[in-house]
Description:
Blueprint: H1 43-46, H2 48-78, E1 84-87, E2 91-94, H3 95-121, H4 139-155, H5 162-174, H6 177-181, E3 205-207, E4 224-229, H7 239-246, E5 248-252, H8 261-266, E6 271-275, E7 287-289, E8 294-296, E9 303-305, E10 311-314, E11 323-324, E12 326-328, E13 334-336, H9 348-351
Antiparallel strand pairs: 1-2, 3-4, 4-5, 5-6, 6-11, 7-8, 8-9, 9-10, 12-13
Helix pairs in contact: 2-3, 2-5
Amino acid sequence: MSSQDIPEENLPAEQEHAHGAVSVADEKNPFADPGLPPHEHRVQDIDERAAKRSERTVALLFTVSMLATVGFIASYVTIDVAKSIYVFPIGHISALNFALGSCLGLALFCIGAGAVHWARTLMSDVEVADERHPIEATPEVKAKVMADFKEGAKESALGRRKLIRNTMFGALALFPLSGVVLLRDLGPLPGTKLRHTIWSKGKLLVNMNTNEPLRPSDVAVGSLTFVKPEGLEEDDHEFQTEIAKAATMIVRIQPDNIKDKQELEWSYQGIVAYSKICTHVGCPISLYEQQTHHVLCPCHQSTFDLSDGGRVIFGPAGHALPQLRIGVNEEGYLEALGDFEEPVGPAFWERG
């Protein structure tokens, strides 16, 4: 059906536009203005049944977008990341990636296709020529813009085509959930993991070099020894994660040289155990001065006094090294009497 088949009284009223107007060329205006071509009415402008069909098509596209978004979330939750499928001609690919890509692409395509079909079949397609105006808008222009906006909103039939409006809002509201569920890949919440290590009461102090438990007689005055908790092996899957928090150094100081009362109570015969992780940015501390009992971080030269509660005496570190309370078991081996009393490592307090 075309506009030529419809009586004039059934055609939509035309706004006053210069369609097909042709000006005459003269000396001042050497180029003739061809104007705009005559407006051709679409079948949706003349037949309400065709308009309803277009409305249902747009609503269907928005609904399919919503279903695709739900499919994206369901695929993300239910499909095993290790599962693969065969897709011709690509070959074997990840089932999860294929499902996520397909659902996300379909959701975006349907929103775009619905918007395009809506604009091409139901919104006004009358071309409007307007004169250029100064950059600074006058009150009259602002009033005209608002009037044009209201007219455009009216012509879009957003208020009258409730099916399109509701399904469009549903598709646009549901689609961002695809991004929200991806937050799961940030990993589980840390909980209290930053506050604790695998040190616990009764765990032996094992020499990192010999992999053997230590007796007090194995630790000489002025020596520095690195230890790990009993049961933590290098071939364990979580070794690097756990040793990054549990790495500990022990030194032996004459009890008379220990200045901090709590440090003396938590030591055994002058053997003190401190976290090896620098409280600045987490570098492993490895330099020890026997005469001063200072340990130095090689990264940024933070210096700690192991004879005075591990306090910071130089450098950018923010707080003292945490001390591990130790003792001796019935067999004469050094053991931990609990975990560190405060979180080890850098920037914990800044993270809250």
